[in-house]
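Box 3.1 A note on notation
Throughout this textbook, protein chains are presented in two layers. The first layer is the amino acid sequence; the second is a C-alpha coordinate string describing backbone geometry. Keep the layers aligned when reading.
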Amino acid sequence: MSGDSRPDDKTIAGWSRAETIAIRVRRWRQRSRLWWLVPAGFGLFGCALLAGAVAFGLVGKPPLSPRKPDPAVNTTITGGTAAAAATAQRAAPGQATPAPGKPLTLLLLGSDRRPGDGTVGRTDSLHLVSLDADGKGVGVLALPRDLYVNIPDSGRDRINVVFAEGSLKGDTGGGDLMRRTLADNFGLQIDHYIYIDFTVFVTVVDTIGGIDVNVPYAIDDPLYPDNEDGYDPFRLDAGLQHLDGATALKYVRTRHETNDFYRARRQQQVMLAIRDRVLRFDLLPVLVPQIPALWTKLADGYKTDLTPDQATGLVLRLKNIDESKIRTGVVDDQATLEYTTPEGANVLVPDTAKVTQLIKTILYPSNGN
Protein backbone atom coordinates (compact mmCIF):
# COMPACT_ATOMS: atom_id res chain seq x y z
CA MET A 1 0.00 0.00 0.00
CA SER A 2 1.48 3.32 -1.02
CA GLY A 3 2.51 5.52 1.89
CA ASP A 4 1.59 2.81 4.41
CA SER A 5 4.22 0.84 6.30
CA ARG A 6 1.69 -1.74 7.50
CA PRO A 7 3.15 -5.25 7.21
CA ASP A 8 2.04 -7.13 4.10
CA ASP A 9 0.57 -10.36 5.49
CA LYS A 10 1.05 -13.48 3.38
CA THR A 11 -2.23 -14.75 1.96
CA ILE A 12 -3.41 -18.34 1.77
CA ALA A 13 -3.14 -19.70 -1.76
CA GLY A 14 -6.38 -19.14 -3.65
CA TRP A 15 -7.82 -16.77 -1.08
CA SER A 16 -7.97 -12.99 -0.99
CA ARG A 17 -6.19 -10.96 1.69
CA ALA A 18 -9.50 -10.22 3.47
CA GLU A 19 -10.51 -13.88 3.39
CA THR A 20 -7.11 -14.90 4.71
CA ILE A 21 -7.43 -12.49 7.64
CA ALA A 22 -10.93 -13.77 8.41
CA ILE A 23 -9.67 -17.37 8.40
CA ARG A 24 -6.83 -16.48 10.73
CA VAL A 25 -9.18 -14.69 13.12
CA ARG A 26 -11.43 -17.78 13.20
CA ARG A 27 -8.45 -20.06 13.82
CA TRP A 28 -7.29 -17.82 16.65
CA ARG A 29 -10.73 -17.92 18.29
CA GLN A 30 -10.88 -21.70 17.94
CA ARG A 31 -7.62 -22.05 19.86
CA SER A 32 -9.30 -20.70 22.99
CA ARG A 33 -12.98 -20.82 23.92
CA LEU A 34 -12.39 -17.67 25.96
CA TRP A 35 -10.54 -15.86 23.19
CA TRP A 36 -11.94 -12.49 24.16
CA LEU A 37 -10.32 -12.71 27.60
CA VAL A 38 -6.74 -12.96 26.35
CA PRO A 39 -5.00 -9.68 27.26
CA ALA A 40 -1.76 -10.75 25.61
CA GLY A 41 1.00 -8.28 25.15
CA PHE A 42 2.69 -6.05 27.66
CA GLY A 43 5.47 -3.49 27.69
CA LEU A 44 7.40 -5.78 29.96
CA PHE A 45 10.73 -4.09 30.17
CA GLY A 46 9.10 -0.81 31.15
CA CYS A 47 6.85 -2.56 33.63
CA ALA A 48 9.75 -4.41 35.13
CA LEU A 49 11.77 -1.22 35.32
CA LEU A 50 8.98 0.64 37.10
CA ALA A 51 6.35 -1.67 38.53
CA GLY A 52 8.72 -4.48 39.27
CA ALA A 53 11.77 -2.48 40.31
CA VAL A 54 10.38 0.86 41.48
CA ALA A 55 7.14 -0.30 43.07
CA PHE A 56 8.69 -2.90 45.31
CA GLY A 57 12.36 -2.04 45.06
CA LEU A 58 11.89 1.49 46.33
CA VAL A 59 9.25 0.78 48.96
CA GLY A 60 10.76 2.17 52.14
CA LYS A 61 14.04 2.90 50.38
CA PRO A 62 14.41 5.91 48.06
CA PRO A 63 17.15 5.64 45.40
CA LEU A 64 20.70 5.96 46.74
CA SER A 65 19.48 6.14 50.35
CA PRO A 66 21.65 4.27 52.87
CA ARG A 67 18.60 3.43 54.97
CA LYS A 68 17.66 -0.26 55.05
CA PRO A 69 14.27 -1.33 53.63
CA ASP A 70 11.42 -1.67 56.10
CA PRO A 71 11.12 -5.43 56.89
CA ALA A 72 7.37 -5.09 57.35
CA VAL A 73 7.03 -3.85 53.79
CA ASN A 74 9.41 -6.43 52.34
CA THR A 75 7.10 -9.28 53.34
CA THR A 76 4.83 -8.49 50.39
CA ILE A 77 7.28 -8.47 47.50
CA THR A 78 6.29 -11.81 45.99
CA GLY A 79 2.54 -11.84 45.84
CA GLY A 80 1.76 -10.76 49.39
CA THR A 81 3.12 -13.56 51.61
CA ALA A 82 5.93 -13.35 54.14
CA ALA A 83 7.00 -16.91 53.36
CA ALA A 84 7.44 -16.15 49.68
CA ALA A 85 9.41 -13.02 50.47
CA ALA A 86 11.68 -14.95 52.81
CA THR A 87 12.24 -17.57 50.11
CA ALA A 88 13.25 -14.90 47.63
CA GLN A 89 15.65 -13.38 50.16
CA ARG A 90 17.33 -16.74 50.75
CA ALA A 91 17.47 -17.68 47.08
CA ALA A 92 19.09 -14.49 45.83
CA PRO A 93 21.14 -12.60 48.41
CA GLY A 94 23.01 -9.43 47.58
CA GLN A 95 22.63 -7.04 44.70
CA ALA A 96 21.31 -8.10 41.28
CA THR A 97 24.55 -7.35 39.48
CA PRO A 98 26.45 -9.52 37.02
CA ALA A 99 29.11 -11.80 38.46
CA PRO A 100 32.61 -10.82 37.31
CA GLY A 101 32.73 -11.36 33.57
CA LYS A 102 29.13 -12.60 33.43
CA PRO A 103 25.95 -10.91 32.16
CA LEU A 104 22.78 -10.81 34.27
CA THR A 105 19.77 -12.43 32.59
CA LEU A 106 16.16 -11.67 33.54
CA LEU A 107 12.95 -13.31 32.34
CA LEU A 108 9.99 -10.92 32.08
CA LEU A 109 6.55 -12.50 31.83
CA GLY A 110 3.18 -10.91 31.06
CA SER A 111 0.14 -12.78 32.35
CA ASP A 112 -3.27 -13.04 30.69
CA ARG A 113 -4.93 -13.03 34.12
CA ARG A 114 -8.01 -10.84 34.39
CA PRO A 115 -8.63 -8.40 37.27
CA GLY A 116 -10.01 -10.26 40.28
CA ASP A 117 -8.92 -13.68 38.99
CA GLY A 118 -6.98 -15.44 41.73
CA THR A 119 -5.38 -17.98 39.39
CA VAL A 120 -2.00 -17.72 37.68
CA GLY A 121 -2.69 -16.94 34.04
CA ARG A 122 -0.81 -17.99 30.95
CA THR A 123 2.31 -16.00 30.17
CA ASP A 124 1.26 -14.67 26.80
CA SER A 125 4.17 -12.25 26.59
CA LEU A 126 7.74 -13.32 27.27
CA HIS A 127 10.92 -11.25 27.07
CA LEU A 128 14.50 -12.12 27.94
CA VAL A 129 16.62 -9.22 29.18
CA SER A 130 20.39 -9.43 29.55
CA LEU A 131 22.43 -6.75 31.32
CA ASP A 132 25.97 -6.83 29.93
CA ALA A 133 28.76 -7.80 32.32
CA ASP A 134 30.20 -4.28 32.13
CA GLY A 135 26.77 -2.74 32.83
CA LYS A 136 26.96 -0.56 29.73
CA GLY A 137 24.48 -2.34 27.45
CA VAL A 138 21.31 -4.41 27.58
CA GLY A 139 19.60 -6.84 25.21
CA VAL A 140 15.86 -7.55 24.99
CA LEU A 141 14.66 -10.63 23.08
CA ALA A 142 10.96 -11.54 22.71
CA LEU A 143 9.83 -15.17 22.61
CA PRO A 144 6.50 -16.03 20.92
CA ARG A 145 3.86 -17.40 23.26
CA ASP A 146 3.14 -20.34 20.93
CA LEU A 147 6.77 -21.53 20.95
CA TYR A 148 6.65 -25.34 21.16
CA VAL A 149 9.12 -26.51 23.79
CA ASN A 150 9.93 -29.55 25.87
CA ILE A 151 8.74 -28.97 29.43
CA PRO A 152 10.72 -30.98 32.02
CA ASP A 153 8.70 -33.84 33.56
CA SER A 154 5.72 -32.92 31.38
CA GLY A 155 6.35 -33.21 27.64
CA ARG A 156 6.00 -30.82 24.73
CA ASP A 157 3.63 -27.86 24.88
CA ARG A 158 3.45 -24.12 24.27
CA ILE A 159 5.86 -22.10 26.37
CA ASN A 160 3.02 -19.91 27.65
CA VAL A 161 1.69 -22.69 29.92
CA VAL A 162 5.00 -23.31 31.70
CA PHE A 163 4.74 -20.70 34.47
CA ALA A 164 1.15 -21.59 35.34
CA GLU A 165 1.97 -25.30 35.36
CA GLY A 166 4.95 -24.78 37.63
CA SER A 167 2.94 -22.54 39.96
CA LEU A 168 0.75 -25.51 40.85
CA LYS A 169 3.73 -26.80 42.84
CA GLY A 170 4.10 -23.68 44.96
CA ASP A 171 4.72 -19.96 44.90
CA THR A 172 8.21 -20.30 43.39
CA GLY A 173 7.33 -23.24 41.15
CA GLY A 174 6.50 -21.13 38.09
CA GLY A 175 9.86 -19.41 38.01
CA ASP A 176 11.68 -22.67 38.72
CA LEU A 177 9.99 -24.50 35.85
CA MET A 178 10.59 -21.61 33.44
CA ARG A 179 14.29 -21.71 34.33
CA ARG A 180 14.50 -25.45 33.70
CA THR A 181 12.57 -25.20 30.44
CA LEU A 182 14.76 -22.46 28.98
CA ALA A 183 17.91 -24.23 30.13
CA ASP A 184 16.86 -27.56 28.61
CA ASN A 185 15.69 -26.13 25.29
CA PHE A 186 18.16 -23.31 24.63
CA GLY A 187 20.93 -23.57 27.23
CA LEU A 188 19.84 -20.32 28.88
CA GLN A 189 20.64 -19.60 32.51
CA ILE A 190 18.04 -17.27 34.06
CA ASP A 191 19.15 -15.29 37.11
CA HIS A 192 15.81 -13.70 38.05
CA TYR A 193 12.24 -13.44 36.81
CA ILE A 194 9.41 -10.91 37.02
CA TYR A 195 5.80 -11.91 36.31
CA ILE A 196 3.09 -9.24 35.94
CA ASP A 197 -0.52 -8.90 34.86
CA PHE A 198 -1.97 -6.14 32.69
CA THR A 199 -3.31 -4.17 35.67
CA VAL A 200 0.31 -3.43 36.56
CA PHE A 201 1.00 -2.20 33.05
CA VAL A 202 -1.98 0.18 32.93
CA THR A 203 -1.25 1.57 36.40
CA VAL A 204 2.42 2.19 35.65
CA VAL A 205 1.75 4.02 32.38
CA ASP A 206 -0.91 6.20 34.02
CA THR A 207 1.33 6.90 37.01
CA ILE A 208 4.07 8.36 34.82
CA GLY A 209 1.56 10.50 32.90
CA GLY A 210 1.29 8.38 29.77
CA ILE A 211 3.83 7.71 27.03
CA ASP A 212 4.66 9.09 23.59
CA VAL A 213 4.72 6.52 20.79
CA ASN A 214 5.31 6.95 17.06
CA VAL A 215 2.60 4.70 15.60
CA PRO A 216 3.94 3.36 12.26
CA TYR A 217 0.55 2.83 10.61
CA ALA A 218 -3.10 3.56 11.35
CA ILE A 219 -4.84 0.87 13.38
CA ASP A 220 -8.53 0.08 12.91
CA ASP A 221 -9.46 -3.02 14.89
CA PRO A 222 -13.24 -3.54 15.07
CA LEU A 223 -12.70 -6.97 16.67
CA TYR A 224 -10.64 -5.83 19.64
CA PRO A 225 -11.99 -7.89 22.58
CA ASP A 226 -13.51 -6.43 25.70
CA ASN A 227 -13.29 -8.12 29.12
CA GLU A 228 -16.52 -10.03 28.67
CA ASP A 229 -17.75 -11.72 25.50
CA GLY A 230 -17.96 -8.84 23.06
CA TYR A 231 -15.90 -6.23 21.24
CA ASP A 232 -14.34 -2.90 22.09
CA PRO A 233 -13.31 -1.43 18.70
CA PHE A 234 -9.86 0.13 18.78
CA ARG A 235 -8.68 2.85 16.42
CA LEU A 236 -5.43 4.78 16.47
CA ASP A 237 -4.01 7.21 13.91
CA ALA A 238 -0.51 6.87 12.51
CA GLY A 239 2.16 9.26 13.76
CA LEU A 240 3.25 10.50 17.16
CA GLN A 241 0.58 9.76 19.77
CA HIS A 242 0.37 10.29 23.52
CA LEU A 243 -1.14 7.16 25.09
CA ASP A 244 -2.63 6.63 28.53
CA GLY A 245 -2.43 3.22 30.20
CA ALA A 246 -5.60 1.73 28.74
CA THR A 247 -4.76 2.89 25.21
CA ALA A 248 -1.17 1.70 25.50
CA LEU A 249 -2.44 -1.72 26.56
CA LYS A 250 -4.66 -1.89 23.48
CA TYR A 251 -1.73 -0.82 21.31
CA VAL A 252 0.41 -3.74 22.49
CA ARG A 253 -2.49 -6.22 22.49
CA THR A 254 -4.13 -5.63 19.12
CA ARG A 255 -3.60 -8.35 16.54
CA HIS A 256 -5.54 -6.68 13.73
CA GLU A 257 -3.91 -7.52 10.37
CA THR A 258 -0.64 -8.47 12.11
CA ASN A 259 0.77 -11.47 13.94
CA ASP A 260 2.40 -12.03 17.31
CA PHE A 261 5.81 -11.09 15.93
CA TYR A 262 4.72 -7.56 15.04
CA ARG A 263 2.94 -7.27 18.35
CA ALA A 264 6.16 -8.22 20.15
CA ARG A 265 7.92 -5.37 18.35
CA ARG A 266 5.22 -2.95 19.48
CA GLN A 267 5.72 -4.21 23.03
CA GLN A 268 9.41 -3.39 22.82
CA GLN A 269 8.59 0.02 21.37
CA VAL A 270 6.41 0.72 24.40
CA MET A 271 9.11 -0.55 26.77
CA LEU A 272 11.51 2.05 25.43
CA ALA A 273 8.79 4.72 25.53
CA ILE A 274 8.25 4.08 29.26
CA ARG A 275 11.97 4.24 29.89
CA ASP A 276 12.26 7.44 27.86
CA ARG A 277 9.40 9.07 29.77
CA VAL A 278 10.94 8.30 33.16
CA LEU A 279 14.41 9.47 32.19
CA ARG A 280 13.45 12.50 30.11
CA PHE A 281 11.32 13.97 32.89
CA ASP A 282 13.48 12.63 35.76
CA LEU A 283 10.44 10.95 37.28
CA LEU A 284 12.06 8.62 39.79
CA PRO A 285 12.19 11.27 42.56
CA VAL A 286 8.57 12.16 41.80
CA LEU A 287 7.46 8.52 41.89
CA VAL A 288 8.94 7.73 45.28
CA PRO A 289 6.25 9.55 47.36
CA GLN A 290 3.58 7.67 45.39
CA ILE A 291 5.03 4.26 46.16
CA PRO A 292 2.75 3.30 49.11
CA ALA A 293 -0.44 3.94 47.14
CA LEU A 294 1.04 2.40 44.01
CA TRP A 295 2.09 -0.67 45.92
CA THR A 296 -1.44 -1.15 47.27
CA LYS A 297 -2.75 -1.23 43.70
CA LEU A 298 -0.05 -3.55 42.36
CA ALA A 299 0.58 -5.98 45.22
CA ASP A 300 -1.46 -8.78 43.66
CA GLY A 301 -0.27 -8.06 40.14
CA TYR A 302 3.15 -9.65 40.03
CA LYS A 303 5.57 -12.24 41.36
CA THR A 304 9.35 -12.08 41.42
CA ASP A 305 12.39 -13.62 43.07
CA LEU A 306 14.19 -10.26 43.20
CA THR A 307 14.71 -8.77 46.64
CA PRO A 308 14.02 -5.05 47.21
CA ASP A 309 17.74 -4.25 47.32
CA GLN A 310 18.34 -6.15 44.09
CA ALA A 311 15.46 -4.39 42.36
CA THR A 312 16.70 -0.99 43.47
CA GLY A 313 20.20 -1.69 42.20
CA LEU A 314 18.81 -3.03 38.94
CA VAL A 315 16.63 -0.03 38.16
CA LEU A 316 19.50 2.35 38.86
CA ARG A 317 21.76 0.38 36.53
CA LEU A 318 19.19 0.19 33.74
CA LYS A 319 18.36 3.89 33.83
CA ASN A 320 21.99 4.81 33.17
CA ILE A 321 22.32 2.76 29.97
CA ASP A 322 22.52 4.81 26.78
CA GLU A 323 19.68 4.09 24.35
CA SER A 324 22.21 3.33 21.60
CA LYS A 325 23.39 0.40 23.74
CA ILE A 326 19.94 -1.22 23.92
CA ARG A 327 19.59 -4.19 21.55
CA THR A 328 16.14 -5.58 20.71
CA GLY A 329 15.03 -8.62 18.76
CA VAL A 330 12.16 -11.06 18.24
CA VAL A 331 12.20 -14.82 17.73
CA ASP A 332 9.98 -14.63 14.65
CA ASP A 333 9.08 -16.66 11.56
CA GLN A 334 12.71 -16.63 10.44
CA ALA A 335 13.62 -18.77 13.46
CA THR A 336 10.46 -20.89 13.81
CA LEU A 337 8.25 -23.19 11.74
CA GLU A 338 4.45 -23.37 11.92
CA TYR A 339 3.16 -26.78 12.96
CA THR A 340 -0.19 -28.31 13.88
CA THR A 341 0.04 -30.91 16.63
CA PRO A 342 -1.92 -34.19 16.45
CA GLU A 343 -4.31 -32.59 18.95
CA GLY A 344 -4.95 -29.72 16.54
CA ALA A 345 -2.97 -26.99 18.31
CA ASN A 346 -1.20 -24.44 16.10
CA VAL A 347 2.31 -23.98 17.45
CA LEU A 348 5.73 -22.63 16.45
CA VAL A 349 8.57 -25.14 16.42
CA PRO A 350 11.87 -23.40 17.13
CA ASP A 351 14.83 -23.79 14.79
CA THR A 352 17.22 -24.28 17.69
CA ALA A 353 20.31 -23.17 15.78
CA LYS A 354 18.67 -19.92 14.67
CA VAL A 355 17.17 -19.20 18.09
CA THR A 356 20.54 -19.82 19.70
CA GLN A 357 22.16 -17.40 17.26
CA LEU A 358 19.56 -14.74 18.11
CA ILE A 359 20.25 -15.28 21.79
CA LYS A 360 23.96 -14.74 21.24
CA THR A 361 23.46 -11.71 18.99
CA ILE A 362 20.88 -9.88 21.12
CA LEU A 363 21.63 -11.03 24.65
CA TYR A 364 25.31 -11.96 24.69
CA PRO A 365 27.13 -10.25 21.80
CA SER A 366 30.43 -9.91 23.65
CA ASN A 367 31.05 -13.32 25.13
CA GLY A 368 28.30 -15.66 23.95
CA ASN A 369 26.19 -17.57 26.44
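The longest helix spans residues 260-280. The two ends are 41 Å apart (CA to CA).
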